[in-house]
Amino acid sequence: xxxxxxxxxxxxxxxxxxxxxxxxxxxxxxxxxxxxxxxxxxxxxxxxxxxxxxxxxxxxxxxxxxxxxxxxxxxxxxxxxxxxxxxxxxxxxxxxxxxxxxxxxxxxxxxxxxxxxxxxxxxxxxxxxxxxxxxxxxxxxxxxxxxxxxxxxxxxxxxxxxxxxxxxxxxxxxxxxxxxxxxxxxxxxxxxxxxxxxxxxxxxxxxxxxxxxxxxxxxxxxxxxxxxxxxxxxxxxxxxxxxxxxxxxxxxxxxxxxxxxxxxxxxxxxxxxxxxxxxxxxxxxxxxxxxxxxxxxxxxxxxxxxxxxxxxxxxxxxxxxxxxxxxxxxxxxxxxxxxxxxxxxxxxxxxxxxxxxxxxxxxxxxxxxxxxxxxxxxxxxxxxxxxxxxxxxxxxxxxxxxxxxxxxxxxxxxxxxxxxxxxxxxxxxxxxxxxxxxxxxxxxxxxxxxxxxxxxxxxxxxxxxxxxxxxxxxxxxxxxxxxxxxxxxxxxxxxxxxxxxxxxxxxxxxxxxxxxxxxxxxx
Length: 523
Description:
Helices cover 8% and strands 32% of the residues. By secondary structure, the chain is mainly β. The protein has 4 domains: 48-151, Agglutinin, subunit A (Orthogonal Prism); 160-263, Orthogonal Prism (Agglutinin, subunit A), CATH 2.90.10; 272-377, Agglutinin, subunit A, CATH 2.90.10; 388-437 and 472-519, Muramoyl-pentapeptide Carboxypeptidase, domain 2, CATH 3.30.1380.
């Protein structure tokens, strides 16, 4: 069963987690044996910390497949590593000499030498609880019955569901670039979310508790807890088929020979077209958020926004769309004859681009040579929320504000942020921050920070951790990356210490592993 990354500290039911990734290269961290009560014993390299067991500095847990390591560092920070030298997650500020302990009462805590708690998962105390490091990179607390009561939210989402694979409620596939996510919702619906987290395809209303399975005969089925099917792909007869969520947004079922046998038909094209790369019939350009499309059909060009036609150019016999060497746009027939042109001025090096609300031809100098805007009524913003809890998806720049201290955020956060930064400066902490981020910026950041792992190219690792486009709190204007002295905050700095003590008073929480990143919900 594939685990999706979820909110840190969220309580969840029990799940099984078969390993989906091959063992990665060894982590450059010295992991010792588990320190135990006198009557207990354990071998090095275990994945569990049981009641009464303790990890001292330099000691840790290793996942069953060897790909993940949790270690108490000499500085007292609890850190989670994969194959990369930088940690994927850390517990918080350093405190040399700290110990990680699971008490007989089920309480998991990282404690300082003076006995005070420096970190503790938000899990209910339950005698017999165990801390487990899973193969998927998630750190979880299981109660005595094996039910999961807490998770770190650090599981890596795969992009492939093999034959026999199952997605349960809360589980997901994610495209390698992180722009697209297939989720099994708690209500039994299976939904494919696009770059801005809007639903691009779904199986329709389901039954709570339903799962999605790639059956061994090649049929993809959504079934309830009694085995009743609520949706199926009707692709039986393709044993060994694999379901893949691609970077182009299409969810495709491939047979064992690699031929596609079914797909959702949700392909998003590239956002631009340069000279020398013609667009063929049946292909499209798409805006970064996926709402605006320019499609070339055999009868011409169509520009549409969420299915509503914005502009069209009838071109019977069209075969290809291209930006010519002189910078004009042309549609040609099968014989290469020009059937339609943009009638724009020559401008070698021009590029045809789709932004989130317009189609434009841009010169190499940045000048707009031709532009078609989406009507305002199609993109009209809804009433801006005043409560941050009501902001549940990315917002356009027009729905943000710049605070008095120069940070662009959602209006619901503006006053609290100004108050926090003013208070910090009064205490000698000169904080600055980066706030709202556009969908295009998030996509670029994800591309820069994330890449397929060598051990399994279907699994993407990010360093530092970078939210998939459409899910980042920066895109909602609800997150800040704090800086001081021109650099992002580091664990152990005076600025991080100040925020750790005071940020909650202003409604901000830290994302473990990223001392600089604070948001309204810790994500």
